[in-house]
Design goal:
197 residues, alpha+beta, Lipocalin, disordered N terminus
C-alpha cells in the first residue's frame, strides 16, 4: 500500500470561507488548493470542489493522506490503476485555510460513521466504475477518464445526501457555516484525480 493522495470520495466539503467570492468558469482547471505526494513511480493529485451560496461559489481542497494498492505487474497505465483499492484519511483535509480545515474536520468528518475506502474498477473505453464507501454506505459511481502520454485524469461527482445519507454531518457543517454561506450549502461535489504513472 502506498500513501498517496487520491481520494475519491471524495468528499466534499463545503466550508466556511469569508474570502471574496470566486468567479470560476472551469472548476477543474482553476485549482485553489492542491496536494501532491510523490512515491516511487506514481504521483497522484486529488482536487475536490464543493459549493456554497445561491450562485454555487466553489470551495476547493484536497485530502493529504491515503493509501492506494496499485497493480505492480501491469503493462499499461489503465491496467496499473484498474482493480485497485484505496483508503482515505478522512481528517486529512487541506483547503489552504487552517480555520476552514478545522471546521470541515470537526463538523463534517467527525460526524461521519466509519472510514472512507473503496475499489477502482476496470478502466475501459473512457469510463471506470468506482465503489466508494463513506458513512457506512457504499455506492458505485461512474467516472470518466482520459489518458495522456504520462498521466490518467479521472473526473466524476458525488452527492453527500443522495449517495451517502450523511444528513447529520451535512447539517452540522451547514449550520456552522450558515451565515457565511447565506443559508445555502450544496450537496454535490466534483472530484478530479490526476495520476502520473
Amino acid at each position: 500500500m502506498r500513501k498517496l493522495l487520491l481520494a475519491f470520495c471524495m468528499i466534499s466539503l463545503i466550508a466556511c470561507n469569508n474570502k471574496q467570492k470566486e468567479n470560476d468558469n472551469n472548476l477543474t482547471k482553476e485549482v485553489v488548493s492542491k496536494e501532491v505526494i510523490e512515491k516511487g513511480e506514481s504521483t497522484i493529485t486529488l482536487e475536490w470542489t464543493a459549493f456554497k451560496l445561491d450562485d454555487k461559489t466553489p470551495v476547493k481542497g484536497t485530502f493529504t493522506d491515503f493509501e492506494v494498492d496499485f497493480n505492480k505487474n501491469a503493462k499499461t497505465k489503465e491496467e496499473r490503476l484498474s482493480n485497485s483499492k484505496f483508503k482515505i484519511d478522512k481528517e486529512g483535509v487541506n483547503t489552504e485555510d487552517p480555520a476552514r480545515d478545522n471546521t470541515i474536520t470537526e463538523y463534517f468528518f467527525k460526524n461521519l460513521k466509519g472510514d472512507i475506502h473503496g475499489n477502482i474498477g476496470e478502466l475501459k473505453n473512457g469510463q471506470v466504475d468506482i465503489l466508494i464507501s463513506m458513512n457506512n454506505k457504499s455506492v458505485t459511481k461512474t467516472f470518466e477518464y482520459a489518458v495522456d502520454e504520462d498521466m490518467i485524469e479521472l473526473r466524476g461527482s458525488i452527492d453527500i445526501l443522495d449517495d451517502f445519507m450523511a444528513d447529520t454531518a451535512f447539517k452540522a457543517l451547514h449550520d456552522a457555516c450558515s451565515i457565511l454561506h447565506e443559508g445555502k450549502t450544496w450537496t454535490d461535489v466534483l472530484i478530479r484525480v490526476v495520476v502520473s504513472l
